[in-house]
Amino acid sequence: MSVDRTAPTTVDAARPLQLGPLVRTDDHWVIGDHTRKADAARPLQLGPLVRTDDHWVIGDHTRKAHLALLPEGMEHRVVGEEPELVAWSRFRGIHLQVACDPVSATRTFALLTLRPSNPWAGAELGSRLRDPEEDWRANYTHHRALYSFRHILLLRFMLMHVSCEHHTELLGDDTWLTWAVGKLAPLRCYQETTALRMVEETLGDLRRRPA
User: Fold this and answer.
1) Are the CB atoms for 29 and 23 separated by under 8 Å?
2) What is the DSSP code string of the chain?
3) Could you tell me if 34 and 27 are in contact, meaning their C-beta atoms sit under 8 angstroms apart?
4) What is the pLDDT of residues 144-190, one digit of tens each?
5) Alpha-carbon distances of 139 from 60, 67, 104, 152, rounded to whole Å
6) 30, 82, 123, 174 - which has most CB atoms within 10 Å?
7) Contact 100, 149 (CB under 8 A)
8) How far apart are CA 116 and CA 202, in angstroms?
9) With 0-12 CB in 10 A as exposed, 13-18 as middle and 19+ as buried, what is 25?
10) For residues 176 and 210, what is the distance between their CA atoms, to the nearest angstrom?
């Protein structure tokens, strides 16, 4: 039995002509779902740093532990415990440990892989504090979603940059931090040297506040 390969097949007239995300609308082609609007409610974010209703936090504030970046300092909040506030003037340097995925962010994973000191394992922020001198570490809960590697690099170098320049109080300035994250988040970088250069060039002179 021969098959006429030139005969057109029946097509559902109500179904749009489509090839993956490429789809034909009434008068032109689009990539993506043109019937839906961009998610305006999606929070501004840079890795584990995310903005809540009125301030910035590091970690998932809806779960066990996170760090709140307040005008007066960084506050470590853990469910069932008293919050611990550290004034910005006490920070000598800020070092962030973070992993891209939630599983790798656990201390159990770091121990099982025999890499407890791996800077990409665990979910922890550390600093050398002054007045009095002491080492300070605070854990936070990884969000359920993945963090992009470039956002982790940019966040780590942003925290290092503001602390090395003795302007950690900027992290509690909602206006400045919103501006900084908005500038850094779209940047594309996958190497530490590139990320460091981009952070320094983008943030510029920290004594100058954005307009």
Assistant:
1) yes
2) ----TTSPPP--TTSPPEETTEEE-SSSEEES-TTS---TTSPPEETTEEE-SSSEEES-TTSSEEEEEETTEEEEEETTS--EEEEGGGEEEEEEE--SSTGGGSHHHHHHTT-TT-TTSS-EEEEEETTTTEEEEEE-PPPSSPPPHHHHHHHHHHHHHHHHTT-GGGGG-HHHHHHHHHHHTT----SHHHHHHHHHHHH--TTSPP-
3) no
4) 889 999 999 999 999 999 999 999 999 999 999 999 999 999 999 98
5) 11, 8, 14, 16
6) 123
7) yes
8) 33
9) exposed
10) 7
Which residues pair with residue 76 across a beta bridge? 67, 84
Residue 94: per-residue pLDDT: 94
DSSP letter for each residue of 48-105: TEEE-SSSEEES-TTSSEEEEEETTEEEEEETTS--EEEEGGGEEEEEEE--SSTGGG
Q: How far is CA 26 from the centre of its chain?
A: 38
pLDDT of residue 150: 94
**Two tokens, residue 86:** 């550290």
CA 82 to chain centroid, in Å, comes to: 26
User: Would you say residue 111 has pLDDT above 80?
Assistant: no
